[in-house]
Structure formats: C-alpha cells, structure tokens
Amino acid sequence: xxxxxxxxxxxxxxxxxxxxxxxxxxxxxxxxxxxxxxxxxxxxxxxxxxxxxxxxxxxxxxxxxxxxxxxxxxxxxxxxxxxxxxxxxxxxxxxxxxxxxxxxxxxxxxxxxxxxxxxxxxxxxxxxxxxxxxxxxxxxxxxxxx
Length: 146
What we know:
Blueprint: H1 8-58, E1 66-70, E2 73-82, E3 86-88, E4 92-103, E5 120-130, E6 134-144
Antiparallel strand pairs: 1-2, 2-4, 3-4, 4-5, 5-6
C-alpha cells in the first residue's frame, strides 16, 4: 500500500525539534540582552567613578593622618568616605566609597629624612550597585603633589 503524508510520531518529532531550536535561540537572545544591560550599568558606574576621581584628585584636601611606616614608604591615610545611596542612571540604587591618602615617593631617596613626606596624592573610588547580584567598579589613581 502506498501512503502519502506523515505519521503522528513523525509530526511530534518534527515539532519537538523545532521547539527545541526556537527555545535555544530565545535563550541566547535573553542571555545576550542581560549581558548588554550589565555592561551598560558598568559603563554608567565607571563614568560616575571617573568623574568623582577627577574631582577628588584635583581638589585640595588637608594633609594629615596616622603614620603607617613600611620601609621607606609612609602612608598617610586621610579619610574613607561613603556617600549616601544614589540612583545609578536614575534607576538602580548604588553607593560610592572613596579613599584619599598621601604617600612618600621612595624614588626621591630621602626615606625617613624627608621633610615633606606627602609627595603623591592617591585616590581610590568604588561604585557599587545592586541588581540581581551586587556588582562594583573600582578605579585608583596617583597625582604627584608639587
């Protein structure tokens, strides 16, 4: 007997394969979109951190603190500050923390005899935001004090 068409089992197998491919492609798009969103938040946090870092590096701050001597490098930790919660891109809650400290430049060769042990101003800025899991961006820079 010569039959035309497909059987019910063949139809179910074909639908199952097609459905699996559609779900796999959908998963890839959703994962890709999530990665794009995460990178957008990181970019916004980095812009915020860079802006604050520039502000802190170029504004005069008082010099002082406790002497934490390690070899010839004296670290004068001035302060660590955590800003109130703000909205990153006006959407995600985020916090900023920055640290400013001064260091003696060991390359000047003066070591502990240095009359001005505040040769370099060092700033670290961290932005943390909260999404599915907490994430953060941290940048640090040093500016010679003249």
